[in-house]
Amino acid sequence: MAKKRALISVSDKNNVVELAQNLVELDFEIISTGGTKRTLEENGVNVMSVSDVTGFPEILDGRVKTLNPYVHGGLLARRNDENHIAQLKEHNITPIDLVVVNLYPFQETIAKDNVTLQDAIENIDIGGPTMLRSAAKNYESISVLVDPTDYSKVVEELKENGNVSLETNEYLAAKVFRHTASYDALIAEYLTKRTGEEAPEKLTVTFEKVQGLRYGENPHQKAAFYKKPLASNASIATATQLHGKELSYNNINDANAAFEIVQEFTEPAVVAVKHMNPCGVGVGENIEVAYDRAYEADSTSIFGGIIAANRPVDVHTARKMKEIFLEIIIAPSFDEDALEVLKQKKNLRLLTVDFNANDAKGVKLTSVKGGLLLQDEDLLSLDNVEVKVATKREPTEDEWKNLKLAWKVVKHVKSNAIVLAKDEMTVGVGAGQMNRVGSANIAINQAGEKAKGSALGSDAFFPMGDTVEAAAKAGITAIIQPGGSVRDEESIQKADEYGIAMVFTGVRHFKH
Q1: Percentage helix, strand, coil, to 5, in the chain?
Q2: Which site in 60, 149, 256, 507 is 20 to 30 Å from 382, CA atoms measured?
Q3: Among the options 137, 227, 245, 401, which is catalytic?
Q4: DSSP letters spanning 50-99
Q5: Which is the catalytic residue, given 245, 275, 322, 345?
Q6: What is the pTM for the complete model shown?
Q7: Is 153 one of the catalytic residues?
Q8: Does 275 participate in catalysis according to the annotation?
Q9: Whole-angstrom distance, CA of residue 126 vs CA of residue 351
Q10: Both ends of the chain: CA-CA distance in Å?
């Protein structure tokens, strides 16, 4: 009886020697190439080179070595097809029963600083994906391994049964096609970016699993968390969890919202989020003061919320945070004594994120039934626009501070959105209402007496003067909004009538 044949060619050599040794014990003949062949031989494994099988040397600096009928005939021949078997015999081609291949490190290459196009191109694997696809297409007869974590499963089945089950082979084949699809998606994305194409005729994206989740937004919904292969370190997807329960679907969404808001600030800032909307934002000369203001902004809604701080958390701030129920605290780091305090709360999740990581402009993907929406991230700030004072009165220095804070926060509130800010913190947030004055009334009611002397930020223009009227009655003294309504003049006249300073940004910040 002819020996079974295995082809092994891997860039990731983890556990490959042990696998090959097991296969030899199981009476497999091993074929290999290049560095894999050397590694196996150095560890005492008897190996046949691919050139011995093909009768043709590796050429073009190794670009062509396995693209040969003696390899692919042995992979693609259907073992239950008499005609295929006859052709193999006619051409003296030996079937290959097991393939172990993983690919040139394209992802690791393009992740390097200052990678050249030549380096990227040379790390596009051709022969590897071709062998994988050939073997996976013929999975009824061939076991194909792309992931070292599957080696032991295949060896175990071979030892117990003499073969690998069809069920396992199908599982392995599906993994192969996911792997090659992901590999090609990264190459396509890299080259597409180089061409400057922003909306290609076909969009292929790939993500890597971070973890399975207990459930989604609700317990009856299945869920999992994935990240982009080259995700920025300045993201929740790459955060380090120091303590607490496993993150849930809603935790991740809320944490991302909190992190995105706190990134708007360069001065010490703390953001509290509930259901993806900020309930309190505070800034100050240090993180403790910023936290005090975020807490004071809405001491009711912060209960059970998510906190993001853009400075290390010290022990004094940690003691205050410990006094209330919080789901998550996100920060660049935690002082040792602060960690000691916060870890007393068993379920409190503590995350660190690299706030200084380079976070290039990205795209936002939103799924719809049967489709996908793609848009640039909204990274526009007041530094990028020309602000125009639309009213007779200009804002005072303090009002400008309040206006800028309100504008930074309102960008992250669900539309229609209104934010009131005063004394370096938010005092009222109105989110997601079907009309703008409805959101304004919610923010004003929440602020109560604190509305007096505050600034109002609106994510979009006022369709009529009713929001200005409501603001004036509440004692709001300054407004920032995009402008651009056909009825802007009505709002301007109302603001002038009540002595409100109003500025136009010319930029809308809808968030649906």
Answers
A1: 40, 20, 40
A2: 256
A3: 137
A4: HHHHHTS--BTTTTBSS-SHHHHHHHH--TT-HHHHHHHHHTTPPP--EE
A5: 275
A6: 0.88
A7: no
A8: yes
A9: 40
A10: 67
